[in-house]
Amino acid sequence: MADTYVLATQKRNRTDEPNGSDSKKLMLHGEADPAAALASARHEFGEHGGVNMSIEASATFTVMEPETMRRMFSGELGPDRDFFIYSRHFNPTVLNLSRLMAALEGTEAAYCTASGMSAISAVLLQLCSHGEHVVASRTLYGGTHALFSHFLPRTCGIETSFVEVTDLEMVDEAMVEGKTKVLYFESISNPTLTVANIPELCRMARRKGVTVVVDNTFAPMVLTPARLGADVVVHSITKFISGGADIIAGAVCGPASLVNKMMDLQQGSLMLLGPTMNAKVAFELSERIPHLGLRMKEHSQRALLFARRLKSLGLRVIYPGLEEHPQHQLLKSMHNAEYGFCGLICLDMETEERANRLMNHLQNYGQFGFMAVSLGYYETLMSCSGSSTSSELNPEEKKLAGISPGLVRMSIGYIGTFEQKWAQLEKALTRLNEPLCKN
User: One GO molecular-function annotation for this sequence (predicted)?
Assistant: First the structure.
């Protein structure tokens, strides 16, 4: 079964028999624009001809002949030919979302999971064994950092060296040929918005036989890491891709060979750990991905406008779309320009007390946004990263990662008009008693 994971472009008849190696070919989405790739992906129609696909809510699937089940378990017949066994293995509705994720990221295959952390964990456990080594960026989402620094060493004997991802010499020296199995970083880091030099990092890793895994949660549509050399791309679909702050989901996007191994009956991390996505969740997400490009354009456009105006007030703004950002030119050289520079900005208020006062005024006086974690929502969400989503890091780790105690991360929404939201923000700033702006 694990050898027949295929991203078919057309609906196949269940009576078709595999045709040699052709049954194992995979659709590689060659379009440069992720929106064009999504438009070219296979469209699944509903059972009765509906323009939207049906939800396949079955946990298990029937066969017409007893011999068929044996052939499915032996790998002769599989989801590439619309033969399904059990929804922990493959579900038609989830498989459709996986095809869309592969199209979005320009990879051969993808597999959608119950959360972003389950996607990350499954990839690392598949690629690394006891005693092997990972090199990872110092600046990561707090849960990912805890996975690398605490859980994997304790449970699996997998050690991680943390590096400054912008220091290419440091990264290169940390990768030990024959021992290091994975180089892991975020395309745009959480929360500091540091931009990784994806092409150069991938070239260095390839020279040493290291697999590159990139978390692209902050930059769907904006960046396509697989086209820049990354081997595997992971996502928390919960964020921008979902857009509604109502679903927890993740994805692994990469080579068919890796996804096949992760679905192996004996050794596959996805198969055996069971981070299964519900078909009803997959249906909802499949209906949202077609307008992801429109949403990302608006998130990014507003983030850039807010960053420029806040900077003009003297606030300490971090945004990779600003020319003074240290990786601005790098991002311009890599990004899909139509989708901007990402939908997040950071304000460095220096202390947690000042950060909290700012957020309190923005939410409770200006009605500008909500104090909440996560990102990608149509309303602006804001949090003080050091005491929330990066709280897993100790003080020294936060310092090395460049996370100020007063760093406020804002996921910029698109509800209302821009001038309406700017007026709300200005109202909140005027209510603060002590000056916020510093020259």
Answer: pyridoxal phosphate binding
What distance in Å separates the CA atoms of residue 251 and residue 234, rounded to the nearest whole number?
Answer: 6
pLDDT score recorded for residue 29: 40
Contact 409, 385 (CB under 8 A): yes
Evaluate the omega torsion of the peptide bond into residue 153 and state whether it is cis, within 30 degrees of 0. Answer: no
As a whole number of angstroms, the distance between CA 120 and CA 141 comes to 11
CB 52 within 8 A of CB 96: no
Whose CA is closest to 202, among 231, 170, 163, 161?
Answer: 231
Residue count of the chain, please give it: 439
Indicate if the pLDDT at residue 72 is higher than 60.
yes
Give me the domains of the chain, ranges plus CATH numbers.
291-430 (3.90.1150.10)
Give pLDDT tens digits for 127-172: 999 999 999 999 999 999 999 999 999 999 999 999 999 999 999 9
Tokens found for residue 251: 């994805």
| Antiparallel, parallel or unpaired: β 211-215 and 232-236 | parallel
